[in-house]
Hints:
Elements: H1 9-12, H2 18-30, E1 33-34, H3 35-42, H4 46-58, E2 62-65, E3 78-81, H5 83-92, H6 100-111, H7 116-135, E4 139-145, H8 147-154, E5 161-167, E6 170-178, H9 185-190, H10 192-200, E7 208-212, H11 215-225, E8 234-238, E9 249-250
Parallel strand pairs: 6-7, 7-8
Antiparallel strand pairs: 1-3, 2-3, 4-5, 5-6, 8-9
Helix pairs in contact: 3-4, 3-7
Amino acid sequence: MPQSRSTSLLAIYPHITSRDRLLLQLLDDHQVLTTDQIHRMLFHARRTCQIRLNELAALGLLDRFRFARDGGGSQPWHWTLGHHGHRFQAAAHQRPEPTLRTSQQTVQRLSANPHLAHLLTANEFFVRLTAHARQHPEARLDRWWSESMTTKQYRTITADGHGLWSIDDTTVGFFLEADTGTEPLTRVVAKLDRYAQLIRRGGPRYPVLFWLGSEQREEHFHRLLQARRGDVPVGTATYISEPAEAVWLPAGATGRVRLAALPSDHGQPVADNPNYDDDGNFVL
């Protein structure tokens, strides 16, 4: 049943499941997900997913938009927080309650964002890891930070995302660079300078994962890497690959390895390394 603008959140609570709360948090953290991405992460049946998303939209917890597809038809629905979803998340995290106008502007700006495709590409990387972990009990995505959270925590780098990926007792940290092919490869390679600075300050020495659109671009990228020092671990793969599998080609290598096999060091317990608390203990 559609909710009015002034609906009390308390009246909506009986309709919100634990899975709904998880979805609201994911959208709060990562802004937008498609129907297919939500299905793979949280649901078994696609039809069940579609029905539930429409129910949450009717409650005002979610909003959605989509565009026409070149050549005919429509792109998939893109889901984001609705006004009551923004209100719920604000209450959960003790933030000021947003106005209806603010919530509407957030959706409008997101839908018109020229970098929307890049955002969805970065999110897709983590969606695939999450879906893999659902099927493999030994695997876990222990951390999924957005670009804004990664920048806030590490300050001097601007990765498209950061994660901690675990297989049994092995945990590998990584930074994601989702390449959409819009920048010259020389500029893409130059991003490694900031990661090198982070390592020199005692920060983590995590592999930087360059997720590329084609094998040809990947090949050219590795040619440019040959002229650099190997102070920052690097792995490359293409969009068609599953990031949890043996698809990562390290710099200077001839064979591909699994994400969990890439070299990873959490860094030193220095003040600006968010991997450690004030007592020097590693924290997720």
